Amino acid sequence: MKSNTTAVYFSLLLFGLTGSAYAGGLYLYEIGTEDLGLAGAGMAARAQDASTVMGNPAGMTRLNGKHLTVGAQVLYGDFDYTMANSDLQGPGNVVGWMPGLSSFYTRQINEKLTLGLGLFGNYGLGLSFDDSWAGRYLVKDATLLALTMQPTAAYRFNDQWSVGAGLGMNMGFFSLKRDQVATGTETEGDDTDLAFNGRFGILWTLSENTRLGLTYAGEVDYDFDVDLSGYTTESGTPWMLPLNAAVAAPQQVMFSFSQTLTSEWALLGNIGWQDWSTFSELALSSGGVQTSPALQLDDTYHLALGLQYQFTEATRINFGLAYDTSMYEDQDYTSLTLISGAAWRFGTGVQHQLSSNSSIGIAVEYLAMEDAHVASPAPLKGSYSDPRMFFMGLNYSYTF
Q1: Is the peptide bond before 387 cis (omega within 30 degrees of 0)?
Q2: Exposed / middle / buried, residue 41 (Cβ in 10 Å: 0-12, 13-18, 19+)
Q3: pLDDT tens digits, one per residue of 184-227
Q4: Which residues are within 8 A (CB) of 40 and not within 5 positions of it... i.e. 6 or more apart?
Q5: 268-286, pLDDT tens digit by residue?
Q6: Cα–Cα separations (whole angstroms), residue 203 to 43, 57, 59, 284, 319
Q7: How confident is the model at residue 12 (pLDDT cuts 50, 70, 90)?
């Protein structure tokens, strides 16, 4: 589905969240909601606002009436690439600033049935290399923007058990820019694609103080028609970027708990899994010359713990800590354009009840990722040292 229209690009930029490859691959837990201050902890069990449409559809049954939650955030990525050959010009910081928005709405039909709709983007890749860097004949900009619209339904069997399901309609936009060796002029290939996946959730309320949630999200497989071949340097060999894993989102499972400890304190947590090993790639070659390295990927695992402190009747303070394993089997053999590594997340935020039917929250999060070393293509080898991200978010919820 070819498209060169700027309307597609900016609509996805405004309503979806883009970013570089973080821990757990390209998936983000950050969508500008209260989860940001918890580092995602408890997202499949918390069900405190309409963003549960994404966190766990079954959680919608805990929301009476009609609920709206909107989130806005800005992130800054410090991903500076250092070339092994100091005589070649490097690309500098390849991420920088990126905005994002999300919105969620739920409506209780009766005591059993609740419907919802989510617009969010928690999957993407956005890399911008310096225009004059040594590898500009291979890549200058690589961007994947993805927006999900998810209609959702949840059913409450009794006071303990609820289930939910949603159909994800995922609109993706992929763009790749590079310079041509022969002319030095910039060329761009881009494409859009619509892909579908399912999201399913179970919520088990053991008591008013204890909830367990389980969410499954199916694989999203985009099919973009973009030429990935280029040259390592102006006088280098042909090379093809191994981006197949970057344009497909694996299936994932998230288990969460929410435990009220006292009238003031609550403990939340996650255990998660993402099926990245499915996208391990074989090396590509042409005429006996290797044109793409093999990507050796592992499944990733996620752990998170969070605390909520009810400071006053109207004000809640959140704290969160999370850890994700790397999608790579070996950090010495990562991809130039698919940056990932084991990562720690540290979040905090404040949620304030403005009135009986509205609340506002602010949150920040810091992400620190392990170094990622790029061995191929050999002329451009180097490292992403001390990659890190900063998230700042603002959310608002209203009950009708």
Answers
A1: no
A2: buried
A3: 899 999 999 999 999 999 999 999 999 999 999 999 988 888 88
A4: 29, 30, 270, 302, 304, 306, 320, 322, 345, 347
A5: 999 999 998 888 764 444 4
A6: 12, 9, 6, 45, 23
A7: very low
Structure tokens at 225: 């028609």
Which pair of tokens denotes residue 198? Answer: 């399912």
Distance CA 362, CA 74 (A): 12
Q: Which pLDDT score, from 0 to 100, does residue 308 have?
A: 98
pTM of the model: 0.90
N-terminal to C-terminal alpha carbon distance within the chain: 40
Q: Which helix (H) or strand (E) holds 304?
A: strand 300-310
Q: How far apart are CA 16 and CA 20, in angstroms?
A: 14
Per DSSP, 244 falls in state: G
CB 121 within 8 Å of CB 102: yes
Which residues are CB-neighbours of 12 under 8 A, at least 6 positions away?
18, 121, 145, 146, 147, 171, 173
What letter does residue 263 receive in the DSSP assignment?
A: S
Burial class of residue 253 in the structure, from the number of CB atoms within 10 Å of its CB (0-12 exposed, 13-18 middle, 19+ buried): middle
Q: What is the dihedral of CA 347, 348, 353, 354, to 10 degrees?
A: -100
Q: Determine the length of the chain.
A: 400
